[in-house]
């Protein structure tokens, strides 16, 4: 089974009369030569790892650089006090995205979805759902179905455009993660394949051109907070698609455009720390201080 585009998935959905997630499940079974049960068992491991990473986050760990740590807990406490302007589900999404991305920076176990630097986006939109009454009927199997949808989207983007910041900028990492999360949410809410495609297209368009400019070359600043933007963008794109709002540019064309933009980005904006925030006065000072600490050590 060859899946090189979102349209390939839509065609298979129509030909086999199966939902998006099951087309991806069958593709996995064929590619890895595993049974349905084995495929789903592996996806369950992924989901459990996301839950474990969230459950073990305490906010007490800080990166040795001093740039990352504790912000996820600050956001959780702020949301609990009822002060957040976003409120409810979106506040929890923000807190979860920060927590998961911090866990990555602090060398905790996370799920690269699709990359470690973008690990907070997908779990951020899925994990908080269990807290809200309107989603209480969701079961574990439905979450796994959503993860298959996300993996199928990520696979297509990786093939057509790329998912690495070093080759395509942060649009390739946070942008792809946001698209995966948007599609997963639409699937969970019973959206059609076309609506999944529209959500993916809108999520990618909103972040197209986002550069990768890590301060001091570390996946910390601005990476952690960009997970928040990717997650909230995913929620917005999913809601627009479910409302019947369509992407004027077809999803595969958006992915192709993203790939072209990534290839045309100057090398300074592709994870080299030679441009953007990395060479701001404060960014350079942070880099200098970190290098001084290393020499002293």
Structural commentary:
The protein is mainly alpha-helical and 297 residues long. It has a single domain (6-296), classed as Orthogonal Bundle (2-methylcitrate dehydratase PrpD). 63% of the residues lie in helices and 0% in strands. It contains 13 helices and no strands. Helix 7 packs antiparallel against helix 9 and helix 10 (193-207) runs parallel beside helix 12. The model has no long low-confidence stretch (mean pLDDT 96).
Layout: helices, strands, pairs:
Layout: H1 6-16, H2 20-32, H3 36-55, H4 71-80, H5 88-105, H6 121-126, H7 140-160, H8 165-168, H9 170-188, H10 193-207, H11 223-242, H12 251-264, H13 281-296
Helix pairs in contact: 2-3, 2-7, 3-7, 4-5, 5-11, 7-9, 9-10, 9-11, 10-11, 10-12
- The SSE string, one letter per element, is HHHHHHHHHHHHH
CATH architecture: Orthogonal Bundle
CATH class: Mainly Alpha
Helix-residue proportion: 55-70%
Number of helices: 13
How far is the first residue's CA from the last residue's CA? 54 Å
- List the uncertain runs: none
Structural category:
mainly alpha
Number of domains: 1
Strand fraction band?
under 5%
CATH topology: 2-methylcitrate dehydratase PrpD
Instruction: Describe the largest sheet.
Output: none
Summary of the model, kept short:
Helices cover 63% and strands 0% of the residues.
Question: What labels would you give this structure?
Answer:
mainly alpha; 0% strand; 2-methylcitrate dehydratase PrpD; 13 helices; 297 residues; globular
